[in-house]
Design a protein that fits this description.
- It is a single chain.
- The protein is α/β, with parallel strands linked by helices.
- It has a domain of 280 residues: LDH C-terminal domain-like (Alpha-Beta Complex), CATH 3.90.1820.10.
- Helix content is 42%, strand content 16%.
- It has 17 helices and 13 strands.
- Strands 7, 8, 9, 10, 11, 12 and 13 form a seven-stranded antiparallel sheet that branches. A six-stranded parallel sheet has the order 3-2-1-4-5-6, with helices on both faces.
- Strand 8 and strand 9 form a beta hairpin.
- Helix 4 runs antiparallel to helix 13, helix 8 packs across helix 9 and helix 15 packs antiparallel against helix 16.
- The longest helix has 25 residues.
- The termini are far apart.
- This is Alpha-glucosidase/alpha-galactosidase.
- Keywords: Carbohydrate metabolism, Glycosidase, Hydrolase, Manganese, Metal-binding, NAD.
- Its cofactor is NAD(+); Mn(2+).
Length: 460
């Protein structure tokens, strides 16, 4: 059994940390220790208790110990792998940048990647990731760093911006779901019941705005099958009239189907992510339009409730009042570790700087494509050029990422305001409206924006 050490930044996480612990519990080829670090120390302590209890379950085959570090530096000592899964700021700040824009008719479905939320969340995140990157460079420069935090593209970009030689990539499960949709289309057309892993695809783009121009099952081209599938479900979506039961984190995927009709390529992300990258008038002009396209606006209040329930559950487990359960996440993080350790080989989608794998996007900018994992090596798969119109929209978002990096480099929020003025989803607003929104939100985030000391736009 291969022994390794994992440092987990954000080790008090309710979602990703629990998933990792479950995945480690059922993995027989790896063992070692996981060091949890979190600014919420008690949350990390509870997770360490839960992780150690998981290893005692009858169905656990992994041999892992979980402990807690009070400092980032201590957690990183001797790390072979570093996982990062944090919430930049708190849900109170998220509630501000997700819901305050509604006063200007701007609705945000997820609120963690692009639009006003992506801008402000990036501003909060970047100084934090500077700290992480510098600590990794100083303490464990050869460790592989796996990011799960959103905004994914900007998080990974910041790691490389601060520490260019870092071995980092970002994980997102968005294409897993589109593979399941493609498997469904294949089964309905042919009767073949394929697992998503058997559906070969060519993802290309940036996180949550990734496109697929190739889909295959063995010798079967799925693209024409998907065309018929789109025609079949276009009017009602993949859930039909039951779409209201997919929950506040779901959708009927009607936007995905519409985008295929527009561009002839498959949008990989769920509708709630996709619409935030696109012009306001396409799908989110008002709540009536949102309902007609059958996707949900997820309130931050619900995220707060879920967090509270997770905290209460963790406390009960730690006190022995609730049994612990092993629930494998379905993610590929452990498969990636095994491949990087030379135990297997893997091809999967990740977010890393563009080395030419997407020729018509800028070199060095973080993009999402497939990559080949081998012993201590990750090589992106060449995808070819993105289709023209998706590439044009993608470039607008990439240009905004560069503006945000300038805000960090110059410690000046003027570049963030410029990013808002160029955001695709705000193109219907006047500059005065965007400035009013900016001036309304910035003071509410004051404790998390003190890094930007050179700004003259607003008194912090």
């Amino acid at each position: 059994m291969k022994q390794i050490r994992i440092a987990y930044i954000g080790g008090g996480s309710r979602l990703w940390a629990r998933g990792l612990m479950s995945d480690l519990a059922v993995e027989s080829d790896l063992g070692g220790e996981v060091i949890l670090y979190d600014i919420d120390y008690q949350a990390a302590v509870n997770n360490a208790t839960i992780g150690n209890l998981m290893m005692k379950q009858p169905n656990a085959v992994g041999e892992w110990t979980f402990s807690v570090s009070k400092t980032l530096d201590e957690a990183l000592v001797g790390a072979d792998f570093v996982f990062i899964s944090i919430l930049p700021g708190t849900f109170d700040e998220m509630e501000t940048y997700v819901h305050r824009p509604e006063h200007w008719g701007v609705y945000q479905t997820v609120g963690d990647t692009t639009g006003p939320s992506g801008v402000f969340r990036s501003l909060i995140m970047m100084p934090m990731y500077e700290t992480f990157a510098k600590a990794i460079e100083r303490i464990c420069p050869h460790a592989w760093v796996i990011n799960f935090t959103n905004p994914m593209t900007m998080c990974v970009q910041m790691l490389y911006h601060v520490f260019p030689k870092i071995k980092a990539f970002g994980n997102c499960h968005e294409v897993f779901f589109v593979q399941k949709i493609l498997a469904r289309a294949l089964k309905e057309a042919t009767g073949i019941d394929a697992h998503r892993h058997e559906i070969q695809i060519n993802p290309q783009g940036i996180n949550h705005f990734t496109w697929i121009n190739y889909a295959s099952y063995k010798d079967i081209d799925i693209m024409p099958i998907y065309q018929d599938f789109v025609d079949k479900y276009y009017d009602v979506g993949l859930s039909g009239d039951q779409w209201v039961h997919v929950g506040p984190f779901g959708s009927a995927e009607r936007v995905k189907l519409d985008l295929f009709k527009r561009f002839g390529v498959i949008a990989a992300a769920g509708d709630r992510h996709l619409v935030e990258f696109l012009p306001h008038d396409w799908y989110m002009k008002d709540k009536a339009m949102i309902e007609s396209w059958r996707f949900f606006l997820t309130p931050v209040s619900l995220r707060k409730e879920i967090k509270q329930r997770g905290n209460e559950s963790a406390e009960r487990i730690a006190k022995g009042l609730e049994s612990v359960r092993i629930s494998p996440s379905g993610e590929e993080g452990i498969l990636q570790l095994k491949a990087l350790l030379g135990l297997t080989e893997l091809i999967t989608n990740i977010n890393i700087p563009n080395q030419g794998q997407i020729p018509n996007l800028p070199l060095g900018h973080v993009v999402e494509t497939n990559a080949v994992f081998r012993r201590d090596d990750v090589k992106p798969v060449f995808t070819g050029n993105m289709p023209e119109i998706p590439a044009e929209i993608t470039m607008k978002h990439i240009e905004n990422h560069h503006r945000l990096l300038k805000a960090f480099d110059h410690k000046d929020l003027a570049y963030a305001l410029e990013a808002l003025e160029h955001d695709v989803s705000l193109s219907h607003l006047s500059k005065s409206d965007i400035k009013a929104m900016f001036d309304d939100i910035v003071p509410r985030l004051k404790p998390y924006l003190t890094y930007y000391s050179n700004t003259k736009l607003i008194k912090l």
